[in-house]
Amino acid sequence: MNNSIKNSQLFLVAIFAVMLLHSCAPTKKIRKENTAVPETFLHKNVDTLNTAKTEWRTFFSDPYLISLIDTALLHNQELNIMLQSVDMFKNQIQAKKGEYLPFVNIFAGAEVEKVGEHTRNGSVEKQLEIDGKEFPEPLTNYSVGLSASWELDIWKKLRNEKKAAVYEYLASVEGKNFMVTTLVSEIADTYYELMALDNQLDIVNQNLDIQKNALRIVKLQKEAAKTTELAVRRFQAEVLKNQSEKYEIEQKIVVIEHKINFLTGQKPQHVHRKSKEFLTTKIDTMYAGVPIQLLQNRPDIRKVELELAASKLNTKVARANFYPSVGIKAGVGLESFKSKFLTNTPESLAYSLAGDLIGPLINRNAIKAAYKNASDQQLQTIFEYEKTILSAYIEVENGLSNIQNLKKIYNLKANQVQMLTESIALSTRLFKSARADYLEVLLTQREALDAKIALIETKKEQLIANIHIYKSLGGGWK
């Protein structure tokens, strides 16, 4: 008897050893991600002062803009869709956590069975008695109890799946933060674009007044035979041209207002803004810090970093599928052919305990393919991580250069506007005294209008450039 038990144990150990040896999983060496960045940005001294640490409520000073952003963070549909996705990732953590804990179920059942008399079971039952009575026909059975199953996580497969779910949840949170930065940036961009259009409309209206006054002068000169009908027609055409531009700008204002309402999750309505203060809006100094801070401040970089951590764990999970799994099943309860006997113990007591060892032996192609896919996914995420870091660094470099050049452009255009504005009055006086023809007056007015609109565009680009560098540095989500 002892030899039989010993032989059975040796046999089981031998089977386990064969399965373990056969389950040796392939290993694919994956290179480590490269997170190196330059020590400083081009033409910038080493300084850790970083505008990205400024909260967006402090970064923006316009109360109307702050109100729009607040509304968007509550009602923007895309952001709310993202929040639901974050919540679903959170639910996955709970699901994965439950997988490596024992599953315990409660059960209750009732059944009835009648077998044929001319069968083995029927013949046996015909000869049986229960409590001195004839075997019941049909046979009923009642049961109630608990059943449990548990897969032993000896290879950390289930725990790694849970950790991967945690990283994926954290990555989704960073994805939500990046969406917030994008939303804040887009609302601010659109808000300043709307203010710029308001100012362009004011310039066109002012220019229309000047041109209508010039048209009146030309008509008077024509009556005095100092000019021709051609000059009158040219001035009338210029007035009509600017009136059409006025309606074009008004339509653009309607479209931009509706875009802001869409971003804030509201129905079409007037958007309050401080357009008269547009050209005097202060351009704050931006502090870029050092490139290494991008890895800490930018949500999109942190998102990919967490996705990479999850992909590493997923590769381990895929590799663990090559190893045998160990499971335990158990049950305990009461069982009887009559319900009144269910409480009679130990006669009605029933229990079971079983363990199993299952491992892949033949045709492991699906497991190999899953492992290769997980490895490729990890390598793909490494490339994505490196690309995001490089893209972030280049974004900041471009933004810093753009801010410097826009400042120079704005100063030059401001001087140009001043000179052309003075030229309008001068050309009008010369025209009245017949020392300049009407073409010079028209050209001067047109150049002045174009220069003023270009100045407004440059101011808008300056404000938007500051917003973009703020976003590129990792600000705007808190």
From TrEMBL:
Record-level Gene Ontology MF annotations: efflux transmembrane transporter activity
A GO CC annotation given for this chain: plasma membrane
InterPro entries in alphabetical order: MdtP/NodT-like, OMP_efflux
Keyword Transmembrane in record: yes
Subcellular location: Cell membrane
Coiled-coil segments on the chain, per record: none
Keywords: Lipoprotein, Membrane, Palmitate, Transmembrane, Transmembrane beta strand
Pfam families: OEP
Membrane topology label: Lipid-anchor
Domain of life from the UniProt record: Bacteria
Major place of residence: membrane
Sequence intervals crossing the membrane: none
NCBIfam families the UniProt entry points to: outer_NodT
Annotated family: Belongs to the outer membrane factor (OMF) (TC 1.B.17) family.
Protein name: RND transporter
Organism taxonomic ancestry: Bacteria, Pseudomonadati, Bacteroidota, Flavobacteriia, Flavobacteriales
